[in-house]
Amino acid sequence: MEPVLFYGVPHGCSFGAIVALEWLGQPYRLSRVEMLETRDPAYLGVNPVGATPALLTADGRVINESLAILHHLASRDLRRPLGFAQGTAAFDDLNYVLAFLHADFHPVFGVLFQPGKYVDDPAAQANALDKARAKAALGYGRLEARLAERDWLAGDRQSVADAYFAGVARWGADLGLFDLARDFPRVHAHLRKLDADPAVAFAHAVEDAAPAVSAGGFLGQVTLDALKPRLAA
Question: Could you tell me which residues come within 8 angstroms of residue 95 by beta carbon, excluding any fewer than 6 positions away?
Answer without folding.
Answer: none
